[in-house]
Design goal:
Layout lengths: L4 E12 L2 E13 L4 E5 L6 H8 L7 E6 L2 E2 L5 H11 E4 L11 H11 L4 H14 L15 H13 L5 E5 L7 H17 L3 E5 L3 H4 L4 E6 L2 E4 L1
Parallel strand pairs: 3-8, 3-9, 6-7, 7-8
Antiparallel strand pairs: 1-2, 1-4, 4-5, 9-10
Helix pairs in contact: 3-4, 3-5
Bound molecules: adenosine-5'-triphosphate (ATP) and magnesium ion (MG).
């Protein structure tokens, strides 16, 4: 299989107590190397739910997700974590930074986890933090950063491993026009220079227009816009 990520007939519902909330309904999606895709859709339509499935953070109720040819439902948690570390960068909607670590350590963490040399990891993290405009904030912990600054740290953390696919959930939501444009160019640069895939959830039509494909999520399914 040449697709980097594939969703086959995926349905997803949340269960809370005995209440079932259907979100995705027999959805199909193929993401190839080098593609850039915007995912649009109303609040609550299931965009974050879909990204979580693509990244193996949750499993479909029905259907299958393949990451780099591997059927995620056939793997255990450790195998999925390894596969994710090998292929994916993830920018969460609510960034999930480690609160007791500095911006620098948060960004360097994916490199340290995969066993890179500490000095090299810190140097790369510093360079990337400069590129997102945070050269003077490297020693700040998340609580000592603004919302938009935290978001930029999270983006740097997702980009640092130069992943073959970047999944980004409203990465520019908290940013002013200039910073949004800067981080968007960084993501597009990775997409083009490394031929990696970029999947971005956004509410911003202008940002969506910069992606090769625009998909709209509605009634649990995706359609080309
Ligand atoms: N843990 C949960 N249990 C039950 N329902 C949930 C849970 N998480 C999300 N939902 C519901 O699933 C639907 C899809 O949520 P999701 O977060 O994927 O939407 P979204 O498209 O990302 O929205 P937004 O644009 O506001 O971020 C929503 O209606 C939400 O209320
Ligand atoms: Mg969301």
């Amino acid at each position: 299989m040449s697709d980097l990520i594939q969703c086959q007939q995926v349905s997803y519902h949340y269960n809370s107590g005995n209440v079932k909330t259907p979100v995705l309904e027999t959805l199909n999606l193929s993401i190839s190397q080098g593609e850039s895709i915007a995912i649009l859709g109303q609040s609550g339509c299931g965009k974050s739910t879909l990204l979580n499935l693509l990244g193996g953070m949750s499993q479909p109720s029905v259907g299958q997700v393949f990451l780099s040819g591997n059927n995620l439902s056939k793997l255990n948690e450790d195998q999925i974590t390894d596969l994710r570390a090998q292929h994916l960068g993830f920018v969460f909607q609510f960034h999930h930074l480690l609160k007791d670590f500095s911006a620098l350590d948060n960004v360097a963490m994916p490199l340290l986890i995969r066993g890179d040399n500490k000095q090299t990891a810190l140097t790369s993290a510093k360079e990337l933090l400069s590129k997102v405009g945070l050269k003077d904030r490297v020693d700040h912990r998340p609580a000592e950063l603004s919302g938009g600054e935290r978001q930029r740290v999270a983006i740097a953390r997702a980009l640092i491993t130069q992943p073959s696919c970047l999944l980004a959930d409203e990465p520019t939501g908290n940013l002013d026009a200039k910073n949004a444009a800067d981080v968007l160019s960084l993501m597009i640069e990775l997409n083009q220079a490394q031929n990696s895939a970029l999947v971005m959830v956004t509410h911003d039509e202008k940002i969506a227009q910069q992606m090769q494909r625009i998909l709209v999520l509605e009634n649990g399914r995706l359609s080309e816009s």
